[in-house]
Amino acid sequence: MREVIAFIIMGIGVTFDFLGCLGLVRLPDLYNRLQASTKCVTLGTILIMVGVIVFTGWNQIGFKALLTLLFILITSPTASHALARGAYKAGVKLWDKSVCDQYGGEK
């Protein structure tokens, strides 16, 4: 039963990873792509790691999965924010149909 639950959690994680990759390809500008990839891929990868922990239990592999989960949880949003801020300061334009620019004011 534990294996079935683990595979369901990992399947949901893979689905989120796929949707994040799809958003990376389909969305119009850098900022939307960063948002989709960061949220979906972070959640998807964390769910995969939780599935690994459920599947293997608390052993060496489970502990490594937990450390990986924590590392991704901390670094992925931080890196995404740094990339978006750097792109904005470098002058990368928002999509034409963007509603507001919180750094530069509303359109």
Characterize the structure shown.
There is one protein chain. The protein is mostly helical and 107 residues long. The chain has one domain. 78% of the residues lie in helices and 4% in strands. Strands 1-2 form a two-stranded antiparallel sheet. α1 (2-26) packs antiparallel against α2 (30-56) and α2 (30-56) runs antiparallel to α3 (60-90).
Task: Give a short summary of the structure.
This protein has 107 residues and is mostly helical. It has helices at residues 2-26, 30-56, 60-90, and strands spanning 100-101, 105-106. Helix content is 78%, strand content 4%.
Mean pLDDT: 91
**Overall spatial form:** elongated
Number of helices: 3
The multimeric state of the shown protein is single chain
List keywords for this structure.
107 residues; mainly alpha; two-stranded antiparallel ribbon; 2 strands
Layout: helices, strands, pairs:
Elements: H1 2-26, H2 30-56, H3 60-90, E1 100-101, E2 105-106
Antiparallel strand pairs: 1-2
